[in-house]
Amino acid sequence: MSSKDTALKFVERVINGHDLEAIDQLLSADFVEHSAPPGFAANRAGVTEMFGAFLAAFPDMHVRVDDVIAEGDKVVMRATATGTHKGPFMGIPATNRSFSIDEIHIVQVRGGLCVAHWGVVDMVALLRQIGVMPSPGG
Fold it and tell me: Is 137 among the domain residues?
């Protein structure tokens, strides 16, 4: 399986398929999450906990991969994430509001497993769209 296929399989199985058990099959035991949110460990267990929390808060969360560039052991994905805020998120009670945000992810793959991840997620847009942060000028 190519590095690109491995990275895309994570999106499809874990995020879109809500299969948290697949994390242990797709991430190496020494996986490093370079973009872990506060309160989550930067390892495979932390990723499992983080996606458990995200999927509880946004049970219809879906990521559409818009572009993929792969070279060597790195895969870059530009994606759009969508979902509806149905459960607590970072201490914020459910607002039942939907979001659509941009994301950029870099995944390092070796031996068919993801070994590292760096990501940029537009959290300001998410917080504005779920109604807990004001939009500019209002």
Answer: no
What range defines the domain where residue 72 resides?
Answer: 3-129
pLDDT tens profile 120-134? 999 999 999 999 988
The pTM of the full predicted model, rounded to 2 decimals, is 0.92
Domain count for the chain, please give it. Answer: 1
**Residue 134 falls within a domain, yes or no?**
no
HSE of 32, CA atoms in CB hemisphere, 13 A: 5
What CATH number has the domain bearing residue 52? 3.10.450.50
